[in-house]
């Protein structure tokens, strides 16, 4: 009897070890949708110096007739087709040219196995150069698209005419973030857990995303991470084409999302709160836009970051969530502040509110 139990225990142990090993392996291509289901390349693309292709989309007035040239950087699970709902009347009035692109591994752009915070900035610079939009341009980074924007502020500040970070993700591994601010933040542990799993057990992460998380929680009723305005956007917007169960099953897309997450929440080569003002003569400006009701990134962290970088103009939307870029009124306010220096008191917290 004892011998049989020992053999059963050995078999169970071998099974557990096998499952653990499988969890550490990247997902295989078996079970993925067929190549015919993958989107065909229909957008214009440039070829980068390392051989990768980057897809892009142009909006607004004609490039050669524009007064302002803006590169918009999409967030996690989005693409160049993202919604930045700037009113057409404002676009025509100010003469704005928008350049949107699929970041590495998204949409119709090739993945970058060497992706880093730094490579994101140089992808943007090379895109601007090949499309000849000028020596200086504006950058607007949305959500996870904020880390490429921080990268631009670090590595190519001389190319920037101005920058805005809209609902920017905060990396809990930034050295300057005080522990007292993040100690009670319920988001910190899930991010750390997801980062560890993404790095060391990608097979487990793939299973969890494809079998447990998508599609119901992201677009459904997960009020823990999304306020009511965000949930409405998720249900009605087409700006998140990557975040559904059928798409995430593709190994290439999964690896791109995983890589983006690991870089965005990994150890950066610099601390954003040590950056210098790229516009010391006030020739332009940098802005952070944050929703007070944002359940993805707490406003307390954004207030701290902007407090450490007083040259950043901080705006807070009283009833806004994480998806504030999907509001046309707010998009107009973002553009008027960035391009014209116009301020709205509605979005300006008092100095007393900023004291933590």
UniProtKB/TrEMBL annotation:
The record's annotation in Pfam families points to:
Abhydrolase_1
The alphabetical list of record keywords is: Signal
User: Which residue intervals make up region (Disordered)?
Assistant: 25-44
User: Which residues belong to the signal peptide in this entry?
Assistant: 1-22
Where the record annotates domain AB hydrolase-1, the positions are: 70-326
Q: What is this protein called?
A: AB hydrolase-1 domain-containing protein
Species this chain originates from: Liquidambar formosana (Formosan gum)
